[in-house]
Sequence to fold (695 residues):
Amino acid sequence: MKVDCNINIHHLARVEGHGNIRIKIHDGKLQEAKWEVVETPRFFEAILVGKKWDNAPWICGRICGICSIGHTLASIRAVENAFGIIPAAQTQKLRLLLKHMETLQSHILHLYFLSAPDFLNAGSVFPLIKSHPDIVIKAAGIKKLANDMCDCIGGRRMHPTRPVVGGFTMLPDKKELIKFRERLQDVVNGLLFTAELFRTFNIPDFVRETEFVSLKGDGNYPFIGGGLISTDGVTKKEQEYKQMTNEYIVGQSTSKWSRLSRRSFAVGALARINNNFEFLHPAAREVSLSFGLKPLTHNPYMNNIAQMVECVHVVNESLGLIEELLDSEWTGPRQEVVFQKGTGVGAVEVPRGILYHCYEFDEAGHIVKCDCVIPTSQNHANIQHDLEELAGKYASEGMKDRDIELLAEMLVRSYDPCISCSVH
Amino acid sequence: MDAGLVRTYLGVPLYRPKVAFFEFSSCEGCQLQLLNNESSLLDFLALVDVVNFREAMKEKADDYEIAFVEGSITRSDEAERLKDIRSKAKVLVALGSCACFGGVNQLKNRFSLDWVKKEVYGNSPVETEPVRPLGDVVRVDLKIFGCPVKKEEVEKIVTNIAVGKAVAHPKYPVCTECKANENICLFDLGEPCLGPITRGGCDSWCPNSRFGCWGCRGPAEDANVEQLKKIMKEYGFSEDTILDRLECFGGFSAFADTLRKSGEKNKGTSA
Fold:
């Protein structure tokens, strides 16, 4: 059957921010497939200019409501790198634990509230409260634990108050960490349930080869700082990030696009696993392999599974981190900050992929130049090329427009885009 | 959507108002705060009938009574969309600092539009306007302050709307709540803080974590900004530090403008 279809999705639902999908197929042939980003820019890179260094993490955290902790940590790292500050081991561990809990809450939010409804034939999570109460309660429980831990370590789950340049304003109570250790152990079982649930989902079988970019593991599955790597063999230092991101401006998007060795690349959980599979916690590696997820996986829908695998990883690693923190004598919460003229880059793996903040400071510690490269902006070109290939493939196979529309929506959602973040 | 039992108040079944959520230039964090409510989300959903919430659901309807609107207005199409929402909603609620005052976005208004466009997009065309809070474009019936909004406060306000109670914001400052929480004064820890002049209601959220207040909720009733400036100077904080905080979220814009102008003038005379 030769299909004609005209798909026009204005402000795609269940994603963060504003994006449109437009697909035109005539006589079974693809005329146009477009991923448009219409979000209004907020100009964070300009509004930071002239501000003193301590403003950067506080203001830049506001780039994103979902990964504000990741933005705050990337911003702090950029400032610390500019001033030559090396955070204490205790600070590094607490930051990683905080980061892990953001990853957990964000992945669970995406997997259950944004992605799962597609697989369960629902328009949102709300009807699932009645039809699948066990699923929603389990998800809410895991998310609550992650958010509660973010409150405990970061002061607040959104736009955190305690992480600052040099460390934290305040440390959590060790007794609280002991309680969280118990609750985390319950989550290990909750995640087994998640894995079994996702095993029943029909992940679309669509493959388009691309390049994957992430931090490069150095003995550990990487989250905060370090070298950069791509599956096409490119490696760069953190401060050389611009050679990895190569941002450019396109007409169909208020977000910038990126490219490296090919016309597009992908970042995110799938990219991290494709580059650092060997460093996953053994329990996470086992779940990953049980879904057939191993390097190199080129199916973008598998990013959902990759996020689920990362949930298993961060929960297990967090248990270890809590153990190490409880076993050590704690020092003060923060180091003294001495500012200096210079430039610093902070690369952090946030839920949707690698995030870079870069600031240049003058002698007085004021920002002269600011640059933020967001994971979703690095993914936009890849989403566009996936969408073209997907629409063309299924149109030629005679698939109904309603099915193509759903697969297109699910494709974009698989990237878990954070659109307002990508425009910032 | 229908999410469970109908609640009663004083034995009377509650009317569940149809509510919709919308967002303009923002991080969408204030809406997310509602989804972040794992333990009370279901109770909240029993209280209202959510008919439009793009961040969470695919279904949408234009038939709503209360519109919660997040974000500030930075482009002409946003102003048009907001006017359309206003025409449909009986009650329009500005949700969060961006909607109430412009939020961090309004820091852009310190610069010329030409400069900010060039700084971020080079010579490529991009459309943007000076940042405006919702109230500069349409009538706003109720403001919920904060960056982010505090979920307990939103729930209390929504409950009050649902049961027909008046909604009143605290008139006292964050400092009052901070004292009641028995925190060490941040000035004594060497940290700047706008707690003495910022509207309470957040339960001194930031100072509880030994992080000074940045004024995200705007001025308290009868806020004495001049006196605070004097006190902060006595504690050794520079005018720049005070200005950074006063101008951060837009709630103190009149004071910040004056301070910025006097700062520029002083720099001009000393140079």
Observations:
- The two ends of chain A are 44 Å apart (CA to CA).
- The domain at 44-423 of chain A is CATH 1.10.645.10 (Cytochrome-c3 Hydrogenase; chain B).
- Residues 89-119 of chain A form the longest helix (31 residues).
- Residues 148 and 157 of chain A are 7 Å apart (CA to CA).
